[in-house]
Structure formats: C-alpha cells, structure tokens
Amino acid sequence: MSMRIRTSASAALTVAALAAGTVLTAPVAGAASKAAAPKFLSASQLPPHPSSSWTAGPVTEGFPEELGFCVSTEGVLDYDYRYRQFRTDLDAGAVQLTVVTDSAAHAKALAKHYDDLIRTCAARIEQSSPDVEAEGRDYGKLPVEEGARVRGLHTETSWGATDIALLSVGRDGRTVTVVQWGQMGGFKDAPVAAFKKTTTTAVNKLY
Questions:
Q1: What is the model's pLDDT at position 178?
Q2: Are 79 and 32 contacting, i.e. CB atoms less than 8 angstroms apart?
Q3: Maximum pairwise Cα distance, the chain
Q4: pLDDT tens-digit profile of 28-66?
C-alpha cells in the first residue's frame, strides 16, 4: 500500500487499531519459549510482477510498520516477532510477519484476532479518515496446516489516489504468519490466485 494512503489515514487509524487490539491479552513477559525460528518466503515465491523482479530484504526482529495500517501489536507485545520486506522497482511491495506464541491455543486466538482486524480494517479507515473510501473483500479460507484466510482491501482518497492490498493470516502450530501484498490500483489488479499460492507456501514453509 502506498505512502499516500498512509499519510492521510494512518494517524487516526492507529488509534482505532490499538483500541481493537486490546481484546487479546498478552502473556507474561518471556512466556513464549524459544524454539527453531520459522522460515520466510523468498522473493521468487511472491506473486510475479509483470515488469519487475522482487527483491527480499533481511529477516528482521520486530513488527513491520507496513502492517500497522490494519494490524496492531497491542495486547500481544511479548511474543516473538520477525518480519521480511519485499520490494519491486515499481509500485508493488510486500511484507511477511511471523509471530511465535507460547501455545497452539494462543496462536489460534491470535490468528483470529489478526483476521478480525483485517476484516474490519476498511470500516475503521472510513470512520477515522473522511477523505478515504475503503472496501474489503473476503477471498476465503485455504486448507494448509491449521488454516489460512485471504482478504483484499481497496482504498481511494478524495484526490484520486487508489491502492489495492491483499492480506492473509495463517497458522502452523503455535506460530502465526501474516502476509501483505500491495500496489496502486483496484481489485481488478489484484493477483488473488497467485497470492493464495504465496500464502499456502508461506504457511507450509514455516517449519
């Protein structure tokens, strides 16, 4: 998703996201035991771009600000967050987050929490930013490991900037992964089938 939308909507949306995020109680600090780190997508496993190759950044500790547009860390700050950013030479970008929790039950709750935040993101954008129209779409569940779901989000500003994002949440055991792809455009420009394949690969590749 481009910086234009983030500039107009991110401040107010952050407040809404933080409020929504408090529904999931964080565990005691250090509760998530250390285990083998989950693996990440490679650049070649992103939806193919018609005119530019993908470049993968390093795996980094922490939470990516790109996901803060719809997804919040509030209430789950003590988990083990890692992410990897992906870029093209043009307007497309992507990011993958992995979150290692302390149990499969907490991971299941976290996956639902993140999916709920994504599902309600369009409404929160419109409530917090009158100059932005937003629409979300549900592209359904994927039968991979403990499950995954893909959703789409389109935003358009009053000055004509339009962006499309695909987001997914998946789970393998006590680990949750969130994948986001975005570029300028509308729903017709979204590579839904390819992104579903990317999501399936992301979940399968965790361990």
A1: 98
A2: yes
A3: 48
A4: 444 444 568 999 999 999 999 988 899 999 999 999 999
Contacts of 195 (CB under 8 A, 6+ apart): 47, 150, 166, 168, 179, 181
Task: State how far the Cα of 127 lies from the Cα of 153, in Å rounded to an integer.
Answer: 15
pTM, full prediction:
0.84
Distance CA 74, CA 27 (A): 12
**3-state SS of 146-168?**
CCEEEEEEEEEECCCCEEEEEEE
| Burial 87-118, CB ≥16 within 10 A → b, else e | bbeeebbbbbbbbbbbeeebbbbbbebbbebb
Q: Identify residue 9 by its one-letter amino acid code.
A: A
* Residue 1, C-beta contacts closer than 8 angstroms, at least 6 positions apart: 66, 69, 93, 153, 155, 163, 165, 180, 182
DSSP 3-state of 31: coil
Quote the CA–CA distance of 42 and 54 in Å, as a whole number.
9
At a CB cut-off of 8 Å and minimum separation 6, what does 99 contact? 76, 79, 80, 81, 107, 110, 175, 176, 177, 178
Pairing of strands 148-157, 162-172: antiparallel
CA distances, 134 to each of 157, 158, 172, 189, 203 (Å): 9, 11, 31, 16, 28
Angle, CA 140 vertex, CA 167 and CA 12 arms, to 5°: 35
